[in-house]
């Protein structure tokens, strides 16, 4: 528990920095910074500020994609059609509304985020670094992959999230604990207990189950003894890899592809730049870039001017260096300027999507041209892949059409040279091979396939495999004979009786101990077992059964040296008989080094979270929210 306290007592600011960007994109995507005014295009409105339908749909799509990625990483096979779209959309919209409410609350409270804070967060984010150092190229690539249209849009998004974090910190980082609260928690945490436990197994109780009891249980629980609904399936599987042996590639095609590939090799240009971002005053930004151009034209070092004047804080520290670039890495205006330069030349001021820029070409790298022999295997594979792709798509479409029209799978199999295979019997929950795929089992037990006797639609197992199925035999649930299940019933009833007998025996021993009709030693002798003695056991003890430990610490404190008795069910079966002899608390729990502060931080952290949750709830209850 002390480790939990330490974890919860860490700086909230430090925790927020880690993963802040991933969190916000998981919730809403960058489009949350945009607002639309047309009511027909709105999904909701929070205190007069709209949330657009487009924004909601993009956020739902992002959340769905991340859910699928997480399931794939865990090795799960999951059919996207099984996602409850209405529930997902409602949940995402709820999150967007909550976020809007918090941003408005932070703004009304007067919280602000400085540009320097945003810069520091961006510069220290590992995703934007190469070899531990911020890289402007990497930054642009990452935010572009996130769907961000510009650096300014990303900065606005980070500003919003930091506002929410700052607002939360106003509650969580300023909460405190009173000395009494710290002392009470310390006393509970440092408490130890002296007790003895007697493990009473079920096996020690003699039980007998009659035939009449088995028959009565079978009759009363008939639904438990039905065979599962099952199907036997006929399947046709079409695999992309089966087409590779059917295609051939000639040397002329290989030569043509080789020439095309080496023709696409591009030179790399190392560039430096000076960026002046355009805010509300474009004229002022143009004046600044002209000033930088004039200083360079007058002979000043480009790197020095970049360090002083560039708004790209990541590259300005390196004299504006962007590293090696190929055509298409940035927008067209930047490319036009860079690829018109000779080494050492500086462009005139150019307006790009990033702002006004001066571009300098510092180095050239000619492309390395590999030989045809070194690329032959790769080129042949690529040409085969193109042919296989066309053949696989055509065959898949043909299989889908034939399966839709044919009364069984024999005709499609003959037309495509495939073999009809039999699978099953399998239950609704699936089995092995194809039966392990949820898409196959959903189709097998669909109304058209199961009840109407149709072939299934084309089922895509993965990017390289499709299958069509048909129910060959439907095995409906049937009552299992008593003779088949009587042994299981007898075992179950015997165990239940044994558990009941053990519970009664444990309760009886506890009552005898409480009434002093039986001594502790006599109870052990009567049970034929030995007491396990435990002295000064703390809550964090890991050598004792945790369920037993939790129950022991839930027992009331003995009064006047009078032991407390109780019995508890064991997870493995049977019961614990427990004698609690004493409860001890350290005389001065605050004397431990750092102890009291740690308890106080834990209590303060919990209180701060509760305060923020209450504030959030109040903002939500007072907000005027309309859903469209």
UniProtKB/TrEMBL annotation:
It is a single-pass type II membrane protein. Residues 266-363 form the PpiC domain. Pfam families: Rotamase, SurA_N_3. Keywords: Cell inner membrane, Cell membrane, Chaperone, Isomerase, Membrane, Rotamase, Transmembrane, Transmembrane helix. GO terms for cellular component: plasma membrane. One of its GO terms (molecular function) is peptidyl-prolyl cis-trans isomerase activity. It is found in: Cell inner membrane. The chain crosses the membrane at residues 12-30. InterPro entries: PPIase_dom_sf, PPIase_PpiC, PPIase_PpiC_CS, PpiD_chaperone, Trigger_fact/SurA_dom_sf. Belongs to the PpiD chaperone family. PANTHER family: PEPTIDYL-PROLYL CIS-TRANS ISOMERASE D, PERIPLASMIC CHAPERONE PPID. This is Periplasmic chaperone PpiD. It comes from Halopseudomonas oceani. The lineage of its organism: Bacteria, Pseudomonadati, Pseudomonadota, Gammaproteobacteria, Pseudomonadales.
């Amino acid at each position: 528990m002390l480790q939990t306290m330490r974890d919860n007592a860490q700086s909230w600011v430090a925790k927020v920095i880690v993963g802040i960007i991933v969190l916000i994109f998981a919730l809403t995507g960058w489009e949350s910074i945009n607002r639309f005014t047309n009511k027909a295009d709105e999904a909701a409105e929070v205190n007069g500020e709209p949330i657009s339908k487009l924004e909601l749909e993009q956020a739902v799509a992002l959340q769905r994609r991340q859910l699928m990625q997480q399931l794939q990483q865990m090795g799960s096979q999951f059919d996207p059609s099984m996602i409850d779209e209405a529930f997902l959309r409602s949940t995402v919209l709820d999150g967007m509304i909550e976020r809007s409410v918090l941003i408005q609350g932070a703004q009304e409270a007067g919280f602000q985020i400085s540009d320097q804070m945003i810069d520091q967060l961006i510069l220290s984010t590992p995703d934007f670094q190469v070899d531990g150092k911020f890289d402007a190229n990497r930054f642009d690539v990452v935010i572009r992959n996130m769907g961000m249209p510009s650096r300014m849009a990303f900065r606005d998004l980070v500003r919003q999230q930091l506002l929410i974090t700052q607002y939360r910190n106003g509650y969580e980082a300023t909460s405190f604990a009173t000395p009494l609260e710290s002392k009470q928690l310390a006393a509970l945490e440092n408490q130890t207990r002296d007790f003895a436990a007697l493990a009473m197994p079920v096996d020690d109780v003699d039980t007998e189950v009659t035939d009449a009891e088995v028959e009565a249980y079978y009759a009363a629980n008939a639904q438990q003894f039905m065979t599962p609904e099952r199907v036997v399936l006929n399947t046709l599987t079409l695999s992309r890899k089966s087409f590779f042996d059917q295609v051939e590639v000639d040397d002329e095609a290989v030569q043509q592809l080789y020439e095309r590939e080496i023709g696409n090799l591009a030179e790399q240009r190392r560039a430096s730049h000076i960026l002046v971002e355009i805010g509300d005053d474009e004229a002022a930004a143009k004046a600044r870039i002209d000033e930088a151009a004039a200083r360079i034209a007058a002979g000043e070092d480009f790197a020095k001017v970049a360090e002083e004047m560039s708004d790209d804080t990541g590259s300005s520290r390196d004299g504006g260096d962007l590293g090696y670039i190929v055509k298409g890495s940035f927008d067209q205006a930047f490319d036009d300027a860079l690829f018109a330069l000779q080494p050492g030349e500086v462009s005139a001021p150019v307006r790009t999507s990033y702002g006004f820029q001066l571009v300098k070409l510092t180095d050239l790298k000619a492309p390395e041209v590999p030989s045809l022999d070194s690329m032959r295997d790769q080129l042949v594979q690529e040409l085969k892949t193109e042919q296989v792709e066309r053949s696989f798509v055509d065959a898949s479409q043909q299989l889908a059409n034939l399966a839709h029209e044919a009364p069984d799978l024999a005709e499609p199999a003959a037309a495509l040279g495939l073999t009809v295979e039999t699978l099953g019997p399998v239950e609704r929950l699936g089995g092995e091979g194809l039966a392990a795929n949820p898409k196959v089992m959903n189709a097998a037990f669909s109304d058209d396939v199961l009840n109407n006797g149709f072939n299934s639609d084309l089922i895509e197992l993965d990017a390289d495999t499709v299958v069509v199925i048909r129910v060959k035999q439907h095995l409906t649930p049937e009552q299992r004979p008593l003779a088949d299940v009587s042994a299981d019933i007898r075992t179950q009833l015997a165990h239940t009786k044994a558990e009941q007998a053990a519970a009664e025996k444990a309760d009886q021993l506890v009552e005898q101990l409480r009434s002093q009709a039986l001594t502790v030693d006599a109870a052990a002798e009567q049970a034929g077992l030995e007491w396990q003695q435990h002295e000064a056991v703390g809550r964090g003890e890991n050598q004792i059964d945790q369920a037993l430990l939790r129950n022991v610490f839930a027992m009331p404190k003995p009064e006047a040296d009078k032991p407390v008795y109780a019995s508890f069910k064991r997870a493995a079966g049977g019961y614990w008989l427990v004698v609690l002899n004493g409860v001890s608390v350290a005389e001065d729990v605050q004397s431990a080094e750092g102890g009291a502060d740690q308890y106080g931080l834990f209590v303060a952290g919990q209180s701060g979270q509760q305060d923020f949750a209450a504030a959030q709830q109040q903002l939500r209850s007072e907000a005027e929210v309309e859903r469209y």
